[in-house]
Amino acid sequence: MKKHNFNAGPSILPQEVIENTAKAVLDFQGEGLSILEISHRAKYFQPVVDEAEALMRELLGIPENYSVIFLGGGASLQFCMLPFNLLEKKAAYLNTGVWAKKAMKEAKGFGEVVEVASSADANYTFIPKDFEIPADADYFHITTNNTIYGTEIRKDIDSPVPLVADMSSDIFSRPLDVTKYAVIYGGAQKNLAPAGVTFVIIRNDVLGKVSRYIPTMLNYQTHIDNGSMFNTPPVLPIYTALQTLKWLKAQGGLAEMEKRNIAKAELLYNAIDNSKMFVGTANKEDRSLMNICFVLKEEYKDLEADFMKFATERGMVGIKGHRSVGGFRASTYNALPIESVQALVDCINEFEKLHA
Ligand SMILES: *Cc1c(COP(=O)(O)O)cnc(C)c1O
Fold this sequence. Notes:
Blueprint: E1 4-5, H1 15-26, H2 46-60, E2 66-71, H3 74-86, E3 90-95, H4 98-107, E4 112-118, E5 140-143, E6 145-146, E7 151-152, E8 163-166, E9 183-187, E10 198-203, H5 220-225, H6 235-251, H7 253-273, E11 278-280, E12 291-296, H8 304-313, E13 316-317, E14 328-331, H9 338-355
Parallel strand pairs: 1-13, 3-4, 3-5, 5-8, 8-9
Antiparallel strand pairs: 2-10, 6-7, 9-10, 11-12, 12-14
Helix pairs in contact: 1-6, 2-6, 3-4, 6-7, 7-9
The structure holds pyridoxal-5'-phosphate.
Pyridoxal-5'-phosphate binds next to helix 3.
């Protein structure tokens, strides 16, 4: 039976990306060696990193005065690496979920942290809109897509201070105006590659401004100066990222991705909104195109396990909601075909015929 992969992360990748990666594991570009057993210094690997960077620049429209680096450690390492490099006195954070909170916690070790607004009291079901960014902050940090709660900031906002965004779960889902941001980072395992690689896009002028000593490995400049090759980078995930970037370009780029992502999200949100049994959890105007969260209405709450079983039997994978929200979450990343969304909608409708 065909599986419909709604996993939140690590998550679905395009089939041809997986096949190209598998081929390179068996024989890397006809060299008679696996990508798993070559040196990252080997002449054949540098072009992989170079091409991945070039394609990121092309797809996102990253200007010359920005650097693009590939690191290990996940987005979670960026929660401390970022303030280590950028926070001298004060930083501002928008608290839109657990990931934002974790980022804030780390920053507190380096300076004053101002929480400009929070939706914690409403279990992060919306994105706060009315807030003031302190003009003397070293940077303002946002989480563009809140993977757990299904809320998203889909507009590139204006900030009077350098804007930093954790885009782990919505990078490449829509065209971006990179010039509005000073730093964009994310773990690649949601929309780009398998786990193991983190991308960081940095406007060069924000670096070199803190007075503390920064350990070599945690210093962005180290990795910029060495083209992500200061130490052994995550070779295989970078290779897979390159395959995804090529796929993105061949599909028509980020405008096409956004079109498809809107179509997929509308299909599922409409089914939820028209449903007698289910209801969405996120505030409508803040709903994410990437993670669609819904629960059974109070009078049907007993049927949660039944729906889970019903959907699993029909090939749905990864639709269990995060434990802090409950219910269901369908992640509809770039690689997920609309046919999978339709299959989930069919499940919702059929289940309702049986129970509502
Ligand atoms: C998954 C996720 C993270 C954590 O990423 P790791 O690479 O596991 O550290 C951080 N932020 C957001 C928005 C995420 O979705």
